Amino acid sequence: MKLKSLLMGAALVLGAVPAMAGQLTFWHAYAGQQDKVDFINFALGEFAKKHPDIKLDVVAAEQSAYKTKLNTAMASGNPPDVFYTLPGGFLNAFVKGGQMYALDQDLAKDAWRQSFLESAIAQTSKDGHTYAVPVDVDSVVFWYNKALFAQKGWAVPKTYDELMALAEKIKADGEVPFALGNKDSWPATFWFQYLEMRLKGSGVVASFVNGDAKATFGPEGGKAFEKVAEIAKKQYFPTGFNGMSDQEANMLFLNGQAAMMLNGTWQIGASADAPEGFELASFAFPSVQGGAGDQSDVLAGVAASFGISQKAEDKAGAVTLLKFLTSKEVMTKYVELRKTMVTVKGATTEAAAGPVLYAISNGLVSAAGHLDSFYDTAMPPAATNTYYTSLQGVLDGSVAPADAAKRLEDALKTSK
């Protein structure tokens, strides 16, 4: 039995029933967090005003429960008409099962496709077809306390060698160079991925996921792991970082006990309660001398997207909803409420984003040669587990860098 919700009713259902023309089932994961709730309330409220002919049955869930809920509905053959989905392996499983409606013809009309960052569209596409529209994007940069750097006379590094020299200087000053809490395994992945991107180039994991028989990390994979191991060995991370949470590491950073932090743009929100005098600033991951990758590339992943079920009866109405949700007006409101970059061109305005996020969006991300999506979310689950355990082993010295690279490559070749 499915309880019909009002626009923001967080209805609990066992499955979705295909809707008739003029009625759509819509599932999203914007529950349980005030900024998310504020956004979806605004978006669906405005949609109801402008499209009173399209009625929505809305089901809301928190992110942690949403994936299980959606997977169950898809597996049972009762998918919602329009729904929130993660890019990468999560979306690709539905594509492989023939459950997603391809948006290519719709995107080609009214310059809809051109309204998105092409690098973001690539993350919701497979085998030349686009199956979801990307909504927001998180990028990873180095964060630092501008006031502390000025006080200490530290210069922002432009090259990796300069970064390591600065880390040694900071350590000599009695402070931790890099905040890192890797208890949940994902925070350290940014280090490996950026080094692989700088040494070899972007798109390595995407090649594996897309079934490229020639996909490989190459010798650069082992070298990237070596560099991560070296940072840990030189004690540039906090003591006990592999058992420390990301939140604990963030406190070290905000309290001035750690000078820098390699983290996502969500750091802006995480720094909202910083002590007086803390001035958040960022810089790009530095260039690596001799690296074959485009040194302007940015680790940036689409965090959310919306797709349409192949079973949806009113596909025209479903497309109308997606076009509205990804309109510049709605996406600018998204930025304003959530302080997150969006994939729609021109929507991440300075007024909505604030100076720190706008500088990253308008500068670093816009100028990037490529945006490389997060390895761990792009990989199949089994390979992700191998990635996490291998990287933690490299960091604590129990796994040799070359072995970690081989384990990860083998896992990606065998995982489905």
From TrEMBL:
Belongs to the bacterial solute-binding protein 1 family. Residues 1-21 form the signal peptide. Coiled coil: none annotated. This is Raffinose/stachyose/melibiose transport system substrate-binding protein. Pfam families: SBP_bac_1. Gene3D superfamilies: Periplasmic binding protein-like II. Keywords: Periplasm, Signal. It is found in: Periplasm. The lineage of its organism: Bacteria, Pseudomonadati, Pseudomonadota, Alphaproteobacteria, Hyphomicrobiales. One of its GO terms (cellular component) is periplasmic space. The keyword RNA-binding does not apply. InterPro entries: Bact_solute-bd_prot1, SBP. Its main location: periplasm.
